[in-house]
Design brief:
With about 170 residues, the chain is mostly helical. About 50% of the residues lie in helices and about 0% in strands. It has a domain of about 110 residues: Cytochrome Bc1 Complex, Chain D, domain 2 (Orthogonal Bundle), CATH 1.10.760. Bound molecules: heme C. Heme C binds next to helix 3 and helix 4.
Amino acid sequence: MVSLRMVMQMMKLALLLSTALALTACDGEQTDPKARWTDTAAPASAPVMMRWYTPDQVEAGAALYAQHCASCHKSNAEGTPDWKVRDANGKLPPPPLNGMAHAWHHPLDVLRQVVRRGGAPVAGSMPAFAEKLTPQEIDAILAWVQSHWSDKIYVIWHERDLAASRGLQATQ
Ligand code: HEC
């Protein structure tokens, strides 16, 4: 006959095993900061979505952002209040990057491209950074920028990013 004690011990073992599995899964995800969540890994009902970047990237990005971007997009990425109003030369002012404006409409690859090429493709005034920053530095800056986005904005952005990486949606 199975005693209550044996049942309890089996339950403990099962609990230990599932915790161990969960921890292994987390380790795997953290060693590859670029790993994208799949639908199975992040069900839509997940209350808080894991982000693609690591705390180290955010920290590195903070210094790089301060050096290269803050003069225009402001120290907290709040940009210019009237970011939709063109100046006398028809140029747009630097927009907020903190999730309040438009930046979250763009998948990660488009954001990387905007930083690399600057505003030239849209006859804008943002300088290109392809010669000044490595791809790793650009990713760190974008990590810092995205760390200012609320979970709500991040989840919507993530859906768009996934759709774009599957080629289901135009990337602009
Ligand atoms: C000289 C000012 C200036 C600097 C420096 C600058 N930007 Fe910009 N940025 C702009 C302007 C102005 C725009 C709007 C497009 C245009 O006119 O070029 C823009 C647009 C953007 C966009 C697109 C936002 C959207 O809503 O579509 C992103 C992303 C961005 N900048 C990120 C950065 C990052 C990251 C850096 C630092 C590596 C940076 N910018 C440095 C002026 C600047």
